[in-house]
Amino acid sequence: MTASTPDISLSASLICCDLCNIEAELRNLESAGVDYLHVDLIDGHFSPSLPMGVEVVQQARKKTALPFDVHLMVENNEFFIEEMLTVGVQRVCFHYESARHVDRLLCLIRDGGAKAGVALMPTTPFSVLEYCVDRLDFVLLMLINPGYAGRKGENQVPYALRRVADCRRFLAERGLDIPIEVDGRVAFGNIPDLIAAGATDLVAGSSSAFHKGGTLAENIARMRALIAQAGP
């Protein structure tokens, strides 16, 4: 993170990389100065796509010192959490909608030495977090319906800013000031507004870090400038 933006993290999406040239892509991400490598693990059931498996994450872990920010979109959460803890990741979140034992999974992640979070689909109410907020290190909000990275026609939900602001309010009312990560069409045009609403962790994908209009380094620099513009 830059000195001017100490509270906002950029997590670059692994599935937007050229996975046939993963080591070169990781070097570029390191040079560009991203804070995390965002790892979407999808099982083809919870979400229809299946972009990569555990083996790709294992190989990526060997190639970079970047901290890994894992977002599970799976049905068998316990299996994938254990696999990711074995790989050696820094943050893991799973979807409330696919979890039978939320408290146990949060404890499993924390006991494994990683930060634990819960991810929520666009219409899931925050009330589901009521009895587990004390175990949360962060919350991830999906601002699109899960599907395929960069797919045309998949727009950010129209209530995205209200969603982020309501989450920040929900946490503040319970005395919590933990990160809110936002995932889905985080674009140059909405970054200041997302931050103003309460987002602190931005998943950078095809609409920002990997935008075709610039190089990775140029796009990350542009994101940093927008973050600085948003102010504290």
TrEMBL record:
UniProt KW keywords: Isomerase
A Pfam family recorded for this sequence: Ribul_P_3_epim
Domain of life: Bacteria
InterPro entries recorded: Ribul_P_3_epim-like (IPR000056)
UniProt record, GO biological process: carbohydrate metabolic process
GO molecular function: racemase and epimerase activity, acting on carbohydrates and derivatives
Name used for this protein in its record: Ribulose-phosphate 3-epimerase
Species of provenance: Methylogaea oryzae
